[in-house]
Amino acid sequence: MTKHTAFAADDAIAAAFTSAPAGAQPGRRFMSYPPPMARGGCRVAAAAAAARQATDPGAAGVAAGSWPELVPRHADFDDWMEKHPSALAEFESVLAAAKGKQIVMFLDYDGTLSPIVKDPNSAVMSEEMRDAVRGVAEHFPTAIVSGRCRDKVFNFVKLAELYYAGSHGMDIKGPTAQSKHTKAKAEAVLCQPASAFLPVIDEVYRTLTARTAPIPGATVENNKFCLSVHFRCVQEEKWRALEEQVRSVLKEYPDLRLTKGRKVLEIRPSIKWDKGNALQFLLESLGFADSKNVFPIYIGDDRTDEDAFKVLRSMGQGIGILVSKIPKETSASYSLREPSEVKEFLRKLVRSK
């Protein structure tokens, strides 16, 4: 399958399942990671990331010309749902597993709390979803973990009582409003392991914006500690040219890596830090490091969320929930089909209290 038909097939397969039952070259280099930090949490989580990457070589990035395979390997939807059942259908089982433990909620944003849209700036959260997240945060510590810039995702969600981890977990900040679940020093929670890369990220952003301008529909989003090159609105025959432009720029920056998501090219610092590390750091900040009395629930829809799903599996605690209408390889335990089901799951969790 060519890299073009892989993306075309993604939309076709999603439609087909809609009716299914609910369920190092020379270049610029920068200081070594991790930089000196006031807190120890970032270092602890980074060590765990190094161990995880050693056993998961694919975590480092995607090879040139290797577009992500979006056609599901599990051709049988029922078989996939048996392995990753609906978190709504199995809600009582989830509650039973969490009984007597502190639930901590982790939520991705795009594709989880808001639908995937053509214009990234239009990924607005509905008031109903905001109310559902607000209700969860009243009962459980809650964090938003997104590839977006932290300030941008905060402006979408607009809930000051939450923890926010932007830039794929590389920019973490505690709540700015108190709730019964936030610690007195929650505002002091801050982790920015890629701060040394800010100048180069800005430089690459300016270069990529200029280099991709001739390609209609291509947009470059600056997420502070990482960049997103969106091609959802780019004609399919232009995808190869866009990737070549991006790779030609990155040849001069060997300390940056390229990964691929849902119609987006992600550019991040080559440090051992991801959404799984963000989850571990936040659990530590909440006082649950090495605790057996915590039950993390992580809900996300993209490849970058798999790092968090893997951490939960390695911990043997909590659950990962993949948001997807089609079967995909995942380390999540459960599934939900779309943001509307995420909203219903959150509401049921609140009602259970």
Automatic annotation (TrEMBL):
Enzyme Commission code: 3.1.3.12
Segment forming the signal sequence: none
GO term, biological process aspect, one: trehalose biosynthetic process
Pfam families xrefs: Trehalose_PPase
Enzyme class name: hydrolase
GO molecular function: trehalose-phosphatase activity
Catalysed reactions listed for this entry: alpha,alpha-trehalose 6-phosphate + H2O = alpha,alpha-trehalose + phosphate
Gene3D superfamilies noted in UniProt: HAD superfamily/HAD-like, Trehalose-6-phosphate phosphatase related protein, domain 2
Known cofactor(s): a divalent metal cation
Keywords: Hydrolase, Stress response
Pathway the protein acts in: Glycan biosynthesis; trehalose biosynthesis
Family note: Belongs to the trehalose phosphatase family.
Biological function: Removes the phosphate from trehalose 6-phosphate to produce free trehalose. Trehalose accumulation in plant may improve abiotic stress tolerance.
Protein's recorded name: Trehalose 6-phosphate phosphatase
Organism of this sequence: Miscanthus lutarioriparius
